[in-house]
Structure formats: structure tokens, C-alpha cells
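Propose amino acids for all 438 sites.
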């Protein structure tokens, strides 16, 4: 057995100079959320699943390693990934399941493995070890799993075995918690039903159906019968809209910008950003749209309207739907006319970092004024930012959000901990350089 905390990479810095425009055409890597789900369900299914455009981010590769430890066979050829599943019978791993930096891996996998009669220990890096896990222990314990945590946190030991269905109302807006319950429900005795306070991303629902499971929705209640078997699939992972978000926001910063994004995931439960961009004063043209395995994929073109950027208020359910895009929206808020209000987003404080605190710290370092709240920020508009030393807090979304804010600053910014971008988007700084016109 190795250490109870997995080790991060060494810190690197990245200098980002101001740009005068943002133009080009880009295909962002495969969606992180969908890659996790396909990898997990493929590992449980019977047969060989063939995935193309699998995420290049480190997090879904942590999931693939866990699937191998559970007995699945994984082969990788660039972004093509094949997973030969265990036909419903995970093996007892010989070491800990290392989830790295990935909350999705730890929480969703917990639901998938809890019905199996083994003992699993899940570990993660320093950041993941700080994140709350009680939220999945609660429903999984109600189903009969015995789960040990250390003060509500990883390392997490699951003493797996047969589970019973539950009726569950998710108290927090979390697609990871919903998924853990659905994955456990799929393998439990009886029919599990669940309702969400706020409707979160529905990739698990689509993925379960793609792998052959049946799942019903009556109003806000989802139901899944236990004892269903999964069959391998062939699928292409749509481009990650949460990665595209950085470039979409960059395109808003310059009057003559022009950005085309193709093979982009535009699942309605993930695409609220496109509405906010329109509200802010972006112009989005949908050039093509199609559906694969329940997921919407399209090509879009983005420009800025000649009137420039207005402002936006992001509150209530919208904050939950935009949770991963909020750091970059806050980071460009000073360059809008009316500013951006973000409230009802206290979940941001318990992501890879305290994203509210780090956004506030880095915006202030760049010379911005703002007001910080427990559940969000108010960032006034019409502020010119200057260069600064940016602290990513080893958080991929903070590193990338401030690289975008840097494009309109009056002088260069130095992003510390820039390597964190590789958690979801290793190509980010290369693509940024290609698209930024100087
Ligand atoms: O289900 C998913 O793939 C995710 C759900 C969200 O987390 P929560 O479920 O904690 O809100 C999100 O922040 C994360 O990046 C990915
Ligand atoms: C919160 C995130 O991911 P996870 O919860 O999987 O670590 C994220 O990608 O922003």
C-alpha cells in the first residue's frame, strides 16, 4: 500500500501577455464529465467499449486507472480508448484506487463499486482530501454500504456488498451525488428513485441509457430499477463546453474577435453559458447541431456585438448549472460595462480550491475592486486591470480563468501553478497562444 495522499506535479509558471484580438477555429478536447461516465460504465459492462475523442485531461485518466485496478482492460491510442469491461464483477483491487485531483472519480465511482463484495480504499491528492465526501456516504449508507471516512474526507474505505434501493432527495445541487446514487441503484435490489432540488447535468442519465439500462423520469423524480446489466458501446465524446468556456469568454473581450468551435458538447443542461454570453453581448451563431447517444454536439461561431459587453446576474439554479464556468465569468467581469453578480454559488468554496476566495484574491492583485460574499461575488464593470502574480492554488479552472483575464490587462501576468490546467485541458496554453492575436 502506498501513501494515503497522491502526489501532485511540480509547479510551473506561465507568462500571459495582453492581446489585441482573439480569432480562429478550435476543437476542444472531449468532455471530462462524459469521459468519466463512459469509462466507468464501460468498466462495469460486458464487452469492449470503443471511445473516440476521450478527454485528454488528467482526471478522466485517473478514472481509467481505477477501472484497470478494478479488473477492466484499458488500451489507449491517442484519444481513442478501448475498455473491456468486467461484465458486472469488479475484482478486489490490490492497492488503493487513486482518484488524483478528481472529485468526480471519487464520488461517482463510490456508487459504482459499493454494491461489489470487496473492500475498496479510495485516495486523492491534497486538494481532493480536503473535499466533502459525507454527501455520498449518506445515501450509500442508507442503501446498506459501510463507508469509512476521516472526518468526512478521503481516504474513503468502502466495505462493499449487496445494496437495497432507496428514495432519495438530493439536498445539494450535485450531479456527482446524483450519479453515485444512480450507479448504486442500477445494481441494488429494488427500484431507486431520486429527485434533485436543482436539475443538474444529465450525462449519467444519457450514458446509462446508451449502455442499455432503462431509467425513467416522472416530473422531477428519476427512477432506476436494480439488477440491470450493461452492454459495451461505441461512442464519440463531444468537446468539453467547460473548456471551451475560456475561449468563449476570451472572444467577448475584443471588438473584432471571431471564434469557431466545432464538435462541441451542447447538452442543454451544460449550455447555460451560451445564454449568459448572449446576455453579455456576445453573438452566437449555431452552424451545425446533431445528437449522439442523447448528447447534443454542434459547431458554433462567436463574435462580440458592436455595442460591447453589458453585464449579467447569475443566481439561483443558473449558478448550479454554470458552476464550472463561474471563475472565468468573474475573471472577465471587470471588462464588462455593468459588471457581473454571482450569488447562490457557495459550492464554489469546496471545489479543487476555494474558488470564490482565489478569484477575489487574483482579481484584487490585478487591481480590481469587488465585494466577496459567502456564496459569491459582485464584480463591478468598467475597470482596467494590470499585470500581477497570479496564484492558481493548483486549481485548473483558476489558472485558465486568469490567463483569459490577462489578455485584456495593461501588462503581462505571471500565472503560478499553470500546470494545473492539465487536470481538464492540457492543450490550453498552446491553443491560447494560437488564438490570441498580438
Ligand atoms: O458530474 C460532473 O461531472 C461534475 C459535476 C460538478 O460537481 P458537483 O457534482 O460537485 O456539483 C462539477 O463541478 C464537476 O466539474 C463535474
Ligand atoms: C470541480 C471540478 O471537478 P471535480 O469535482 O471532478 O474535481 C471541476 O472540474 O471544476
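Proposal:
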Amino acid at each position: 500500500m502506498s501513501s494515503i495522499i497522491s502526489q501532485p506535479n511540480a509547479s510551473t509558471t506561465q507568462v500571459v501577455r495582453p492581446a489585441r484580438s482573439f480569432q480562429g477555429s478550435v476543437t476542444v478536447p472531449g468532455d471530462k464529465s462524459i469521459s468519466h461516465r463512459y469509462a466507468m460504465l464501460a468498466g462495469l459492462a460486458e464487452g469492449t467499449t470503443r471511445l473516440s475523442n476521450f478527454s485528454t485531461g488528467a482526471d478522466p485518466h485517473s478514472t481509467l486507472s481505477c477501472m484497470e485496478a478494478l479488473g477492466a482492460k484499458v488500451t489507449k491510442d491517442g484519444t481513442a480508448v478501448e475498455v473491456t469491461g468486467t461484465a458486472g464483477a469488479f475484482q478486489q483491487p490490490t492497492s488503493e484506487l487513486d482518484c488524483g485531483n478528481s472529485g468526480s472519480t471519487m464520488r461517482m465511482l463510490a456508487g459504482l463499486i459499493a454494491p461489489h463484495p470487496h473492500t475498496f480504499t479510495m485516495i486523492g491528492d491534497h486538494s481532493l482530501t480536503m473535499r466533502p465526501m459525507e454527501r455520498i456516504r449518506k445515501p450509500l449508507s442508507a442503501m446498506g454500504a459501510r463507508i469509512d471516512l476521516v472526518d468526512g474526507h478521503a481516504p474513503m474505505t468502502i466495505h462493499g456488498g449487496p445494496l437495497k434501493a432507496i428514495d432519495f432527495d438530493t439536498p445539494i445541487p450535485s450531479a456527482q451525488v446524483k450519479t453515485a446514487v444512480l450507479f448504486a441503484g442500477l445494481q441494488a435490489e429494488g427500484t431507486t428513485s431520486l429527485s434533485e432540488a436543482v436539475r443538474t447535468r444529465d450525462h449519467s442519465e444519457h450514458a446509462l441509457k446508451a449502455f442499455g439500462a432503462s431509467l425513467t423520469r416522472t416530473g422531477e423524480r428519476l427512477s432506476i430499477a436494480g439488477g440491470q446489466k450493461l452492454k459495451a458501446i461505441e461512442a464519440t465524446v463531444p468537446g468539453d463546453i467547460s473548456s471551451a468556456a475560456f475561449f468563449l469568454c476570451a472572444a467577448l473581450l475584443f471588438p473584432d474577435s471571431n471564434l469557431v468551435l466545432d464538435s462541441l458538447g451542447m447538452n442543454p443542461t451544460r449550455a447555460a453559458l451560451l445564454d449568459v454570453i448572449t446576455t453579455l453581448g456576445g453573438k452566437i451563431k449555431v452552424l451545425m447541431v446533431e445528437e449522439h447517444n442523447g448528447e447534443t454536439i454542434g459547431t458554433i461561431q462567436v463574435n462580440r456585438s458592436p455595442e460591447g459587453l453589458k453585464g449579467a446576474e447569475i443566481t439561483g439554479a443558473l449558478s448550479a448549472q454554470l458552476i464550472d464556468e463561474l471563475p472565468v465569468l468573474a475573471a472577465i467581469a471587470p471588462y464588462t460595462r455593468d459588471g457581473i453578480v454571482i450569488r447562490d454559488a457557495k459550492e464554489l468554496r469546496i471545489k479543487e480550491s476555494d474558488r470564490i476566495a482565489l478569484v477575489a484574491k487574483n482579481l484584487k492583485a490585478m487591481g480590481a475592486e469587488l465585494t466577496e460574499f459567502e456564496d459569491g461575488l459582485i464584480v463591478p464593470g468598467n475597470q482596467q486591470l494590470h499585470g500581477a502574480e497570479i496564484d492558481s492554488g493548483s486549481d485548473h479552472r483558476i489558472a485558465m480563468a486568469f490567463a483569459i483575464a490577462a489578455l485584456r490587462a495593461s501588462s503581462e501576468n505571471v500565472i503560478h501553478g499553470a500546470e494545473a490546467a492539465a487536470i481538464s485541458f492540457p492543450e490550453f496554453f498552446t491553443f491560447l497562444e494560437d488564438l490570441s492575436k498580438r
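The domain at 32-235 is CATH 3.65.10.10 (UDP-n-acetylglucosamine1-carboxyvinyl-transferase; Chain). The chain has a mean pLDDT of 96.
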